[in-house]
Design brief:
By secondary structure, the protein is of the alpha/beta class. It has 19 helices and 21 strands. It folds into two domains: about 5-235, ATPase, nucleotide binding domain (Nucleotidyltransferase, domain 5); about 240-430 and about 465-488, 2-Layer Sandwich (Nucleotidyltransferase, domain 5). The protein has a seven-stranded mixed sheet, with helices on both faces. α10 packs across α17 (about 435-445) and α17 (about 435-445) crosses α18. The radius of gyration is 22 Å and the shape is globular. The chain starts with a strand and ends with a helix.
Length: about 500
């Protein structure tokens, strides 16, 4: 076969994969080369990521890829979740394991940001809302506590930048991921230096920012020798949401949903929206490929579903996802509802009981059994999308007449259909591998095999069929919308 091969490391909070994109530039086929776990670890110092273990898994997967594809490999791109980071010393050595964004050390940091600089002012300069998981809150928590890692740091890098540095030896931060930190300016396309100074963070750790699609160099000699092959590493759209939006083949005025642990709803704009209204209702401006702005809002998506399943499996339940989906579809509609983003549901562990307790606390009958709980989750998440979709239309003034939904969450057809009916527009679902697709086509533009991202999206359209969910009778959704809104 003479197809070219591009490699994508798609690393999420829970699992990671190395995928190969085989293409003759008329069709794109994805093959999974290696899958591995990425569990968080609770150490005495907090919740951390085992990045050294992840790097070893990546090297193992790359060795498999080299053995399978050899010189057909054109390049490698890495994408991961946003906001989490590592600190390196002057010699490039890792200063402790990176913390997870759900670690409790950020408690109280929104108030500290307000005291030191002002959250509304930070929004004006970064386009990012105050949120417990922000890199700014995590770094500020280290500054408040005189954390040893921050005191000794010379370099700040996001997780994909750290892995790329270990592979290539080059230290940099890719723009789309830098924009998730609440420390980056969407206007100057550089670090928000006034914010950094105002929070009391050290300027010296914030270094080179590179564009998505920047070649970072070939593999370090020791890495290439170990793998038995060499190829360039591209700083692709390294934030997984940015990669997913890049890989969703929409055009015109549409809303996107990147559906995974987080469900991110938004639309692509040419410029950020930094108005008081956007700040008041909590919309963020993240950087996208080709100098676009992703105007978006996070919703707790598959997180609730995943945590329920994880709890049940820890108790010995072995039901398949298909069996659980069937239980949810057969459960009574429009029972109790919850705000998926309620503080009581943001931490891991005991999610079914947390949901039942929240229902009692809001004067509702708690769901009984797995089917009722999962039905509640699907309907609550769909209602939250409706609330955000209405806000998105109002703030942008755009006639958003359809939703393009990509990511693993589209496998939950009950959720996709619920969103279509609740929002009153068709949902074009696909691809499931939107993140990997966006990663791959960004690389293909960087190497010159594609002229631009629009051509990459057309390649995805030609290669992967989409499934359209049309709205059904909206009456029961409209009848229950006000009841849901009263819970927010």
């Amino acid at each position: 076969m003479n197809d070219k091969v591009y490699l994508a490391i798609d690393l999420g909070a829970g699992s990671g994969r190395l995928l190969a994109g085989r293409t003759d530039l008329k069709n794109l086929d994805l093959e999974e080369v290696h899958r591995f776990e990425n569990p968080g670890t609770n150490l005495p110092g907090g919740l951390v990521w085992n990045v050294v273990g992840l790097y070893r898994e990546i090297l193992y997967g790359l060795k498999l890829a080299v053995a399978r594809y050899g010189e057909r490999i054109q390049s490698l791109g890495i994408d991961t979740w946003g906001v989490d980071f590592a600190l390196l010393d002057a010699q490039g050595r890792l200063l402790g394991l990176p913390h997870q964004y759900r670690d409790s050390r950020t408690d109280g940091m929104e108030q500290e940001c307000e005291r030191r600089y002002g959250n509304a002012k930070m929004y004006q300069e970064t386009g990012i809302m105050p949120f417990f998981l922000n890199s700014s809150h995590q770094l500020l928590s280290e500054a408040v506590r005189d954390g040893a890692a921050l005191l000794n740091a010379s370099h700040f890098v996001m997780i994909p930048d750290l892995l790329a540095y270990w592979l290539t030896g080059r230290i940099s931060v890719e723009r789309t991921n830098a924009s998730t930190t609440q420390l980056f300016s969407p206007i100057t396309k550089d670090w928000a230096w006034d914010v950094i100074d105002g929070l009391g963070l050290p300027r010296k750790i914030f270094g080179e920012v590179v564009e998505p699609g920047t070649p970072l160099g070939n593999l370090r000699e020791v890495v290439a020798t170990n793998l038995g092959g060499d190829f360039p590493v591209i700083a692709t759209t390294t934030h997984d949401t940015g990669a997913a939006v890049t890989g969703i083949p929409g055009d015109g005025d549409y809303a996107f949903i990147s559906s995974g642990t987080w469900s991110i709803i938004g639309t692509e704009l040419s410029d950020p929206i930094l108005t008081e209204e956007a700040f008041r209702v909590g919309w963020a401006n993240e950087q996208g490929v080709e100098n676009t702005t992703r105007f978006l809002r996070n919703i707790s998506g598959a997180w609730l579903f995943q945590e329920c399943v994880r709890q049940w499996r820890s108790e010995g339940d072995k039901s398949s996802y298909a069996e659980l989906d069937e239980l949810a579809e057969n459960a009574p509609a429009f029972g109790s509802l919850v705000d998926p983003d309620h503080d009581a549901l943001k931490s891991p562990g005991g999610m079914p009981e947390r949901i039942q307790t929240l229902c009692r606390d809001t004067g509702q009958k708690p769901p009984r059994g797995k089917g009722e709980i999962l039905r509640l989750v699907a309907e609550s998440v769909a209602f939250k999308h409706r609330v955000r979709f209405d806000q998105l239309r109002e703030i942008t003034g755009k006639n958003l007449n359809r939703i393009h939904m990509g990511g693993g969450g589209i496998k939950n057809e009950l959720l996709a259909q619920s969103i279509a009916t609740c929002c009153g527009v068709p949902v074009h679902a696909g691809p499931i591998e939107a993140t990997a697709c966006g990663n791959l086509i960004t690389q293909m533009v960087a190497t010159g095999d594609l002229p631009d991202i629009a051509a990459g999206r057309e390649l995805i359209r030609q290669s992967i069929p989409l499934k359209v969910f049309s709205p059904s009778d909206p009456t029961p959704w409209e009848d229950n919308l006000q009841r849901f809104q009263s819970l927010l």
